TrEMBL record:
<dbReference type="GO" id="GO:0000976">
    <property type="term" value="F:transcription cis-regulatory region binding"/>
</dbReference>
<keyword id="KW-0804">Transcription</keyword>
<dbReference type="InterPro" id="IPR001647">
    <property type="entry name" value="HTH_TetR"/>
</dbReference>
<dbReference type="InterPro" id="IPR050109">
    <property type="entry name" value="HTH-type_TetR-like_transc_reg"/>
</dbReference>
<feature type="domain" description="HTH tetR-type">
    <location>
        <begin position="17"/>
        <end position="77"/>
    </location>
</feature>
<dbReference type="Pfam" id="PF13977">
    <property type="entry name" value="TetR_C_6"/>
</dbReference>
<dbReference type="GO" id="GO:0003700">
    <property type="term" value="F:DNA-binding transcription factor activity"/>
</dbReference>
<dbReference type="InterPro" id="IPR009057">
    <property type="entry name" value="Homeodomain-like_sf"/>
</dbReference>
<keyword id="KW-0678">Repressor</keyword>
<keyword id="KW-0238">DNA-binding</keyword>
<keyword id="KW-0805">Transcription regulation</keyword>
<feature type="DNA-binding region" description="H-T-H motif">
    <location>
        <begin position="40"/>
        <end position="59"/>
    </location>
</feature>
<protein>
    <submittedName>
        <fullName>TetR family transcriptional regulator</fullName>
    </submittedName>
</protein>
<dbReference type="InterPro" id="IPR036271">
    <property type="entry name" value="Tet_transcr_reg_TetR-rel_C_sf"/>
</dbReference>
<dbReference type="InterPro" id="IPR039538">
    <property type="entry name" value="BetI_C"/>
</dbReference>
<dbReference type="Pfam" id="PF00440">
    <property type="entry name" value="TetR_N"/>
</dbReference>
């Protein structure tokens, strides 16, 4: 009886863009659940259901993958915040929309917030990623500046300060309020602080046109 030759299973060919997206999702999941140290290339590839070599094929290096994770997650956070602020009819509404979107992310998915903090801390120690903290800050501030700059046209608002200064204040408030929640997890205290910040800043920075 002739022996049957065993053959290796045929691997499904996936476009590189699809594999990159799978690896980004897998890397974020591993780091959210187990921390950045657990995100080895093997663990990421296994979570994505891809061969181990896929990380290097799609990104070149693990460092490049980590950079892409930060950029992808920050872009997603910016999109969520700006979508929340869309349709606001005054500066207070814009401020509240952006800040609440950031705070919702911290409250609803603390693992995601911790992951980004850990990645940014790693970037400060790694020369190959040293530009990421500055990039993250600029990404948020630039997006907020664009949004604030449109208010004089969209809702007839006369800004008392340059749009970029207001955007920077928003980011400072977002960081402070996020730290307050992380430290206390006191919803009523956070809501009071948010209300005071939004009303005070809006009153100071806007003038009716």
């Amino acid at each position: 009886m002739a022996s049957r030759r065993e053959t290796s299973p045929v691997r499904e060919h996936r476009p590189i863009a699809q594999r990159r997206a799978q690896l980004l999702t897998a890397a974020a999941e591993v780091m959210r659940e187990q921390g950045v140290a657990a995100a080895t290339t093997r663990a990421i590839a296994e979570r994505a259901g891809l061969p181990h070599g896929s990380v290097h094929y799609c990104f070149g290096t693990k460092t490049a993958l980590l950079r892409a994770v930060v950029q992808s997650e920050v872009d997603r956070s910016v999109e969520r915040a700006w979508r929340r602020a869309a349709g606001s009819t005054d500066l207070e509404g814009v401020l509240r929309g952006v800040l609440e979107a950031q705070l919702d992310s911290v409250r609803e998915d603390p693992g995601h917030h911790a992951m980004l903090d850990e990645l940014i801390a790693l970037a400060r120690r790694d020369p190959a990623l040293a530009d990421l903290p500055g990039w993250e800050h600029e990404r948020y501030v630039s997006a907020a500046t664009d949004l604030i700059s449109e208010l004089p046209t969209t809702i007839g608002l006369d800004l008392a300060r340059p749009a970029r200064e207001i955007a920077t204040m928003i980011m400072v408030l977002a960081a402070g309020l996020s730290d307050l929640w992380t430290a206390t997890e006191n919803r009523s205290e956070l809501d009071r602080a948010l209300d005071d910040c939004v009303r005070g800043l809006a009153a100071r920075l806007s003038r009716p046109a």
